[in-house]
Structures are given as structure tokens and as C-alpha cells.
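Changelog entry: the PH domain-containing protein record was regenerated in this release. Current contents:
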Amino acid sequence: MMAKKPPKPAPRRIFQERLKITALPMYFEGFLSVKRAAYQEFKRYWTELRGTTLFFYTEKKNTIYVDKLDIIDLTCLTDQNSTEKNCAKFTLVLPKEEVQLKTENTESGEEWRGFILTVTEVGGHYY
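Regenerated C-alpha cells:
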């Protein structure tokens, strides 16, 4: 079975609009499913990691984010065993909440983990 191709980045015009709104450099982008305490189930978002903040968009072409999560105070990132094939699940442990993330494939999961750990400098606390 062939791995899914990585999603194409948002068009340049949208990228520039988002840069104006957030005023932060973008390190990584792609689809993430997110489960916060307020959610019963995972919600799928086009997500951008800008600075130390995850910005969530309902669609890849939206210029305005619907939610954001500052991960500067990330305590640790823990892997979750996934019963689903070809996806990665992990939990971001923050001082005030734990947020579960799920990627569309394991390769994307590795990239998200790497970028999150790099921008938060939690690399030594990988569990």
C-alpha cells in the first residue's frame, strides 16, 4: 500500500494573509485531528505551527483561524498507542490542559512531533 502524498501547502496569497494576521514565522503545516477537553471527539483542522503556536483552520483555504493553542509551556509530548492503521496519535501536556493530536499518517506524525519539540525545546523530555 502506498503512503499518502503530503498535502500541498496553502496558496501563496493565503499564506501571506495568514502571515499578516499572526505575524509569526511558519515552521510546519498540514492536517491534524485535535481533541481537547471540551470536545467529545477529534476535530480535523488544517493546522499551522507558527512560532510556538498552533493555529487551526476549518479549511486549508481559510485565512482566519478558528482556534489556536500556545505550546510555549509544553511540559511533555507523549505517544499514544493507536489502533488505527497509518496514523500517529500523541498528547501535548500543558500546564492547564492536555490536548490529543492525531495525524493522517505516521510520517506526518514524526514531522509534527519533531517540529513541536524543536520550537518548544522539550526535546529532552520525549516520552
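The beta strands are 26-35, 43-50, 53-57, 67-70, 76-80, 89-93, 98-102.
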